[in-house]
Amino acid sequence: MRQQTATLAPRARRGGAGTALIGLRGAALSYGAHTVWQDLQLDVHPGEFVAVLGPNGSGKSSLVRALLGRQPLSAGTLTVLGRTPREAARHIGYVPQQAEVSAQALLRARDLVRFGIDGHRFGPRLRSGAARRRVDEILEAVGASAYADVPLGMLSGGERQRVRIGQALATDPRILLCDEPLVSLDLHHQRAVTELIDARRRSHDTAVVFVTHEINPVLDLVDRVLYLAPGGHRVGTPDEVLTSESLSRLYGTQVDVVRVRGRIVVVGVPDEPATPPHHAPDQEGARP
Amino acid sequence: MILADGIWHQVFAFDHYGELLALVRNSLIAGAALGLVGGLAGVFVILRDLPFAVHGISELSFAGASAALLLGTNIVAGSIVGSLLAAGAIGALGTRARDRNSAIGILMPFGLGLGVLFLALYKGRAANKFGLLTGQIVAVDTPQTAWLLGTSALVLAALVVLWRPLTFASADPDVAAARGVPVRGLSFAFMIVLGLAVALSVQVVGALLVLTLVVTPAAAAGRVTASPVLLPLLSVVFAVASIEGGILLALGSSVPISPYVTTISFGIYAICRLAGTFRARHWGARTVTAQPA
How many domains does chain B have? Predict the structure, then answer.
């Protein structure tokens, strides 16, 4: 397979360290009496790769919804590009969890990318030549040209995820927000998808917020980790957060973190709380 | 043999065809408008998985029309009022498919029951009663045609404005919501548009058979293409062909129009489905070759 990088219209934005794209201050989120997380402080800077880790029910998906402006915080503030999340929504490239696309057969890969460009506009589409060329460029950049005209329902999971990344890039995002983008992909496609995301980050200084239950595929890329756990949360570099001591404190029980051949293996995480499962069943092995 | 022959002549008769044709001019015009509206609305009915809602709305539309018949007011208007009430209720009651379907299941028999009541109380021509359920072609007079065309124009205008975000919200609701597309608002707006389209279809094919105009053509088109341009285009062509073909075949016979329309519509779907399996095989072959493991 060709190795393509997502270098579309290279115009790097070199933001200084002071200009955070995402700012969470004393943020808390609760449903009724149940507090999912609280007192969350996090700045995400341009070009930074932040992985959000944690067991099911620890509020990863809620954080995604909050960042998209679809879930109000119960305390604290959240600014995206200095504005409210809702106002900044169109600067976020969102890669959703792999879910079946409804009526997949009626939508081609090319149409999904096109949604990313002008799908939100009302009224008839006028002068679409430029947008069509842009779709072709993006499909080429994510290596999806070969199946541009195939209905989404007939693509493999890895192919569909490339198209999803293309759709997110079509908005020319300042922030890429990826919700479990590697679930149910084989190693080869996991690498391809993470490379596409990393290439965009490097070429455009796009910040990446990467929600995952599996740190190893992105371990080399991650600048910082936000670890959400039932007993609290921790922000820091992988070396700071993914240690036996730090995770034991988060879970309130003895958890061992072992590094084997550049991979992180976590042993002893207690059974996950009895919340409705909204993630695919975890693969066995290295789960933080 | 003689009996079979008699039935054949009831179903297909083309005596005095030219004179009869003049009688259904209005119906042919209305039919073209209905085909256009039904074919386009059908695309979203398939995308949003709403066939059951279409059926539910058409029963309420039937109740509205029969109430209008009883009261001696405009039947198209009555049918539109019934439709909009149903569409509004379904739109407001549930956005998730499961909630929605039970809401429809509750509304539908109620609407049908009301309609039966109004028809039982109505003392006029029996053909009028039957027509609301199974369709009629000469029932469309000039003022009604004006109503039909006016409402069609309204539906078309709404679809032109909503088309893009509605497609986005229907096919990819999660990302659409993330991009700030008003997914819920669009869902409600489409229910209203759908209500109008259904009310129009009830006039020609009858309440029981609306699905043949609003679902079958789009489903058939979806079997052979996934292009956002070709899909609505084919859907409209299929819907117009079904209804106009049905009117022309039903003209000399003593049978209502609906069996002709439904048969043509079903035939088109069957052909598209067959053609679609070949198409899918072609796509499937691509997936295999493009992935050298």
Answer: 1
Vertex B232 angle, CA B211 and B261, to 5°:
35
pLDDT, tens digit (0-9, with 9 covering 90-100), for A65-124: 999 998 999 999 999 999 999 889 889 999 988 766 655 568 899 999 999 988 888 988
Backbone angles phi, psi at B281, to 5 degrees: -60, -40
Chain A residues with beta carbon closer than 8 angstroms to that of B180: 69, 86, 89-90, 120
Does an H or E element contain A38, and which? strand A34-44
What backbone phi and psi angles, to 5 degrees, belong to A200?
-65, -40
Q: Is B102 an interface residue toward A (CB < 8 Å)? A: no
The contacts of residue B278 (CB under 8 Å, 6+ apart) are none
Q: Which residue has the higher pLDDT, B141 or A163?
A: A163
**Contact predicate A261/A188, CB 8 Å:** no
Residue B141 within a domain? yes
Tell me whether B282 touches chain A (CB under 8 Å).
Answer: no
Predicted confidence band of residue B284 (pLDDT cuts 50, 70, 90): low
Domain that holds residue B28: 15-289
Residues of A in contact with B222 (CB under 8 A): 103, 105-106
DSSP state for residue A271 in the 8-state scheme = P
Q: How far is A101 from chain B (nearest CA, A)?
A: 6
User: From CA A286, how far away is CA A183, in angstroms rounded?
Assistant: 14
**CA nearest neighbour of B243 among B218, B268, B222, B262:** B262
Helix (H) or strand (E) holding B128: helix B126-134
CATH number of A141's domain: 3.40.50.300
